[in-house]
Specification:
About 35% of the residues lie in helices and about 25% in strands. With about 300 residues, it is α/β, with parallel strands linked by helices. It has a single domain, classed as Spore Coat Polysaccharide Biosynthesis Protein SpsA, Chain A (Alpha-Beta Complex). The strands form three sheets. A nine-stranded mixed beta sheet has the order 5-4-1-6-11-8-12-10-9. Strand 9 and strand 10 form a beta hairpin. The longest helix has 14 residues. The protein is globular and about 60 Å long.
């Protein structure tokens, strides 16, 4: 399928209240996961999938995000003068990672509203939405698969993941039909945070979407839903029912490693897991983890 290049949209306007007081003056997306802010992992994922144009939707007091992806000449000059090439490379890397743009959401009116704020920048390009606190391990394929499925089917693509039925009420859940490809399903219905007994499956929506520009027209007329917010799920439900110019909605089932850094416990787990797997940190950490676990 021929189309204009993909762009990426990363909503990052949330208040991060679960991490107060740490997020009183720091965006939750800038909390470090080992030695990089969470949002850098997400931008790296987009770049690794071949997307160079990244728009971050920010809220009030989120200037730290823009600063992180900007150059810092005084710091770079100091590191260069000291001959600290390794740290200089890390600082310059985040500045040169992608063409990063920012737009303010204004009022926090939900994920659908945040995506709608990207309309002027995205234009008539297809685009990927990557939630800023949902990290996908770089060793596991997801976004590249989703982009390929968009090319193949000309349809909205969402990421799905099997979850414990006891936790299904925390997610948007998809009713699906099988396709001729393993781990790719056609989505027939989306249900927001159902009770376990009412859930149409155990396939939950996780924070990756590949959308066509036709979604903007739907979002413009989507009425506020739960909590007075414009829900992206409502627009996806309309697309699944045949609205828009696309070919419906399909889901890619992800079976790899995902880290929810928006939750305090999962945030700590992400740091532990990623640090333990690193060649520079793992050898020193793994024996200590075992010793510490034995004391619990």
């Amino acid at each position: 399928m021929s189309h204009k290049p993909f762009k990426a949209v990363i909503p990052a306007a949330g208040l991060g209240t679960r991490f107060l007081p740490a997020t009183k003056a720091m965006p939750k997306e800038m909390l470090p996961v080992v030695d990089k802010p969470a949002i850098q992992y997400v931008v790296e994922e987009a770049v690794e999938a071949g997307i160079e144009d990244v728009l971050i939707i920010v809220g009030r007091n989120k200037n730290n995000i823009a600063n992180h992806f900007d150059s810092v000449p005084e710091l770079e000059d100091k590191l260069r003068a000291k001959g600290d090439d390794e740290k200089l490379k890390k600082v310059e890397y985040s500045s040169d990672l992608a063409n990063v743009h920012m737009v303010r959401q204004g009022e926090p009116k939900g994920l659908g509203h945040a995506v709608l704020r990207a309309q002027a920048h995205v234009g008539d390009h297809p685009f990927a939405v990557l939630l800023g606190d949902d990290l996908i391990d770089e060793r596991d394929e997801l976004l590249t698969k989703m982009l390929a499925e968009y090319d193949l089917r000309g349809a909205t693509i969402i990421a799905l993941m099997e979850v414990d039925p006891a936790q299904i009420h925390m997610y948007g859940v998809a009713a699906v039909e099988a396709t001729d490809e393993d781990d790719v399903v056609k989505v027939t219905q989306l249900v927001e945070k159902p009770k376990a007994e009412d859930a149409p499956s155990n396939l939950a929506i996780i924070g990756r979407y590949v959308l066509g520009p036709d979604v903007f027209e739907i979002l413009e007329r989507t009425e506020p839903g739960k909590g007075g917010e414009i829900q992206l799920t409502d627009a996806l439900q309309e697309l699944a029912s045949g609205a828009g110019d696309g070919g419906g909605v399909y889901g890619v089932i992800f079976r790899g490693r995902r880290y929810d850094t928006g939750d305090r416990v999962d945030y700590i787990k992400a740091i532990v897991q990623l640090a333990a797997d690193r060649e520079d940190l793992g050898p020193a950490l793994r024996p200590w983890f075992k010793e510490f676990a034995a004391t619990l």
